[in-house]
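Usage example:
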Amino acid sequence: MFLQTLITGLSIGGIYALMAVGYSLVFSVLNFSNFAHGAVIMLGAYVGLALATKLSLGFGLVLAGSIAGAGIIAVLNERLAYSSLRRRKAPSLYLMISAMGCAVFLENLVYATIGSRFYAFPEFFGRQIVTLGESSVSLLDVGAFVFALAAILGLHLFISRTRTGIAIRAGVSDMTMCSLMGVDLDRLISIVFLLAGGFAGVAGVFLGIKYLVYPTMGWVTNKAYIAAVIGGLGSLPGALAGGLILGVVETFVSVYISSVMRDVFSFTLLIAFLVLRPNGLLGRDSEEKV
Amino acid sequence: MDYILSIVVLAGINMIAVLGLSIFTGFTGLFSLGHAAFVGVGAYTSAILTYYYYVPFPLALLAGSAAAGLVSLIIGIPTLRAKLRSDYFAIAILGFGEALRVILENLEITNGARGLPGIDSFTTLPIVIFCLGGGILVARNFLRSRWGAACIAIREDPIAAEMAGVRLFQTRLLSLVVSAVYCGLSGGLLAHFLSFIQPVMFTLIQSTQLLAAVIAGGMGSLSGPLIASFVFIALPEALRVAQIWRLVAYGLLLVLIMVYRPQGLMGYSEISSFFSKNRSRERMQP
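Running the assembly step on the lines above writes:
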């Protein structure tokens, strides 16, 4: 029972981590909470769904299409709703309100046009089960977990090893200085949003397969914010750690205490972290400067 | 006629909540994505009191407002004392609002997610007008008081205000409690107007709608958000737009305002300044 709960928690945590990474990436560069991330995840899931049902593509192509679709949506989102605010150096709260507006707009646009129906992905993995000792896990859960780890490791390598990655890290530490050194900020930020959108696409497909596809599915990203806050906003290893911790803790609470109180518990954890340790477990110092 | 009357009453009830959020967001400069939860607390408290315990309506309204104020202390004391970054605070109160909704959905006395039907419909137009008028008067006087001036100072620059001797924590907390009391009152009126309440009526979406009215009306104006809130309720009703397209429009509006006119409809000025030859507009400007 214990091991089973742990494994279930880790697989949910893997998806939380995928969502938290995209959110954290944007936070680290632009320093605001991108509430539209959930909507991008939802749209990514719809793109994947359309590819899977209308064109009956295989899992690999669906995933690739969803990554590309969500990536482009995220870049467009930045261009239309954030870039002018960013250029005139508006307070980060304005960006956050704009992001909130985007989330409400996109979510309800899907509601109004596609409808509130719940859609299911075709069964890519069937109901295959992997047995580990006494406990069993579905292949999907294992796949999601492994893929999440691999993707986050890939992103980490990209950020630490490539020229673009170095430019992103420079932008994180000082935007103005970074642009003085000849980095094209608009391009850099587009790349960041493309990456974040790509991760949103992956998260959307896995969420859609595990649960279902519907307009408010992006609300799960509330959990991604919590994961990012636990790990430390703006830190990629933090997002991974926070996602896994939240997934495991949540599953244990719902199994051993009460499934109803699970969300109350998560939100309490969020508030406790914000108050007691606003930089999270692995975050960098982020005092509001004078 | 009944239809128009109900729109006016609903708009008035919504304006009371917007008035409260305007004090907190517009004049104290802290953003909240959870004020709908305070509306919910007010609605449920007053409805439970009249429904199960036959408490007189005015008393139930007062109790609902007080309960909302008390509940706001639970989130306000730890987060405001910790002087969270303003966007962290917005996330914290968002989490708080969602947690409150989950609790409402799982209590016995609130009848869970199915909602509480058959509440007596005590709320009438004169009562709403009376509450709204009283609310505007209290808000205006509050903002002209020492505490109000402290709130505005904090909005303009928290650090400078603190150095000038304004107590950040106490002032912000007071502003939060006052705004929550307004929301609680609005909730009590709402419950006894619709005679049916449900936890999904008090979610992030409603919080966003309240915030949209304050931002669209202008942060730093009382009349601006009131006008915006009335237009937001009345215009879609008058045009018979489906609920879902209203939300699409709210979202788009938030983005457009932030991109093109972040000061909102009225900016820092009040509607009265248009009649009194710019005198008060100059005074209100920072």
